Amino acid sequence: MATDPEQSSLSSFGKVGKSSGEIDGVEEPLLNGENSSENYSIAAAILPFLFPALGGLLYGYDIGSTSCATINIESSTFSGISWYNLNSVEIGLITSGSLYGALIGSVLAFNIADFLGRRRELIVAALLYLVGALATALAPDLVIMVIGRFVFGIGIGLAMHAAPMYIAETAPSQIRGRLISLKEFFIVLGMVAGYVIGSLLVDTIDGWRYMYVASTPLALIMGVGMCWLPSSPRWLLLCAIQGKGNMQDLKETAIFCLCRLRGEAIGDTAPAQVEEILTELSFVGEEKEASLGEMFRGKCLKALIIGAGLVLFQQITGQPSVLYYAASIFQSAGFSAASDATRVSILLGLLKLIMTGIAVLVVDRLGRRPLLLGGVSGMVISLFLLGSYYLFLDNAPFVAVAALLLYVGCYQLSFGPIGWLMISEVFPLRLRGRGLSIAVLVNFGANALVTFAFSPLKAWLGAGILFYAFGVIGILSLLFIFFIVPETKGLTLEEIEAKCL
């Protein structure tokens, strides 16, 4: 029987007897019953993933291209402008403008996400990507360029909030983990593309303009694609059950959207599935509209601890900082061809792509917890190796190279894709928009904090002690994962709410 990913647990609702668990004194469904297999068409599932995932690709492209654009824009020969002599603060505004815009986008998402819905939020994100890229590329002065970077960043914040929700709520549960993890693959793919295109244009007059304008076709494709895609049936039914529209009209629209998302494989079962969804949403109390206070108690508090905790540890275990040392580590090891920053970035980007691809292939088979525990353990080992290199082993650069590659590979097996996957799965439906916006805000905020604090901490503690500190934080993150983070492999979104929260 085919069900929507957000709805599939409902297919077993009428098939199970009393369970051992209870919600508010009422027997939980889904805990002892077997999931019915969701019938879906692979062809129909591709586009509902692809267009939202372009938001991640554009985010990654911005990271990669900006690292090259700043080199070009500071060149008196190739910048093509009279204001190329920028100080460190001005360069910082260019490089971090999109990050701070993403923080604002995350705050905006808290209030507008459930009003707009996942699809329209992604359309707005695509529009902001387009406007921001054009403003940056055509900027006559620094002020307009920074504004363009900021606008592009707001698009990042909205896209990174809405894309995992849309994919989670429209993907079949059998491949939900694979598809959401594949979004991380698209982010890394965008980074590699940004590095490659940037390295080709870095010695071109006005090259930075071409780097930024190159993202506009993808923004257009994303916007047009999201206009064509249907809304999330789950969001529509949430609106229906909360009285935000005519129940019958919204049910009919949800049936239509579900048929489009599943393709011909769904047959004539869509109306029955929609009724099951409504039954399940009523059972778990989704008809109550979420309040701000509810974010910090009960099920949502637990989901918030899981989701925000994962993306916080994702950043404070040193992810932005370790890559800062990549070029110097390769250079000290004698890799002269890799001493150029852009070439190092491309090499590491390819490694990230490979490891993310492995995670995508195994996440729905091995599960989330094994990848997190195994990957973060590898990160801890690599951080202590890096610390030891800078304190005791400076005559053994191969140790640093091996540790760097181990860190990057293990991060992409664990925190990289699984962090985004888990925050899209753990929040109850009526709190998902606001809960995920808080988690995304924590992610970008922690990224900005670690990036800002890295240089002062390095000057104060030294690189070796700093990497040891990151290693200790990594051990704390392992304890957090082991004791707090649940396994969601193979569970529908309803089952996660019923069993894990």
From TrEMBL:
Membrane disposition: Multi-pass membrane protein
Occurrences of domain Major facilitator superfamily (MFS) profile (ranges): 48-489
Stretches with biased composition (Polar residues): 1-12
Coiled-coil regions listed in the entry: none
One Pfam family linked to the record: Sugar_tr
Entry GO MF terms: transmembrane transporter activity
TM region positions: 40-61, 91-110, 122-140, 146-168, 180-202, 208-229, 303-326, 346-364, 371-392, 398-423, 435-454, 460-485
Subcellular location: Membrane
Family annotation (PROSITE patterns): MFS, SUGAR_TRANSPORT_1, SUGAR_TRANSPORT_2
Keywords: Membrane, Sugar transport, Transmembrane, Transmembrane helix, Transport
Main location class: membrane
Start and end residues of each stretch annotated as Disordered: 1-21
Listed GO CC annotations: cytoplasm; membrane
Position of the signal peptide: none
Homology family: Belongs to the major facilitator superfamily. Sugar transporter (TC 2.A.1.1) family.
Name of the protein: Major facilitator superfamily (MFS) profile domain-containing protein
